[in-house]
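Tip: read the tokens left to right.
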């Protein structure tokens, strides 16, 4: 007989949140030489991802990265593109 997953009501507790709070980047995304912040998809501006050179359209969640050596330059990255950039730089994810 197949196993049945019990709902939160049946377990007697509140459901677990599915998403991180807005503004908190995944742990793997942060480094000592960059500040990383998650941006929800409610922005209305289009950005260009430096990792793939494609547009990050309004409504798409992504990461904002500020490099420690150049705090004036803030870059908007697709989450997978930032992961590839970290691996390219030798960071373990």
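Filled-in amino acids:
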């Amino acid at each position: 007989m197949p196993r049945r997953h019990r709902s939160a009501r049946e377990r007697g507790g509140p459901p677990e949140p599915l998403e991180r709070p807005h503004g908190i980047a995944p742990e793997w995304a942060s480094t000592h030489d960059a500040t990383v912040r998650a941006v929800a998809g409610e922005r209305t501006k289009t950005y260009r991802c430096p990792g793939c050179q494609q547009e990050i359209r309004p409504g798409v969640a992504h990461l904002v990265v500020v490099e420690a050596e150049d705090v004036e330059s803030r870059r908007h990255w697709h989450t997978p593109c930032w992961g590839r950039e970290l691996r390219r730089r030798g960071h373990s994810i």
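The two ends are 39 Å apart (CA to CA). The chain has one domain: 21-88.
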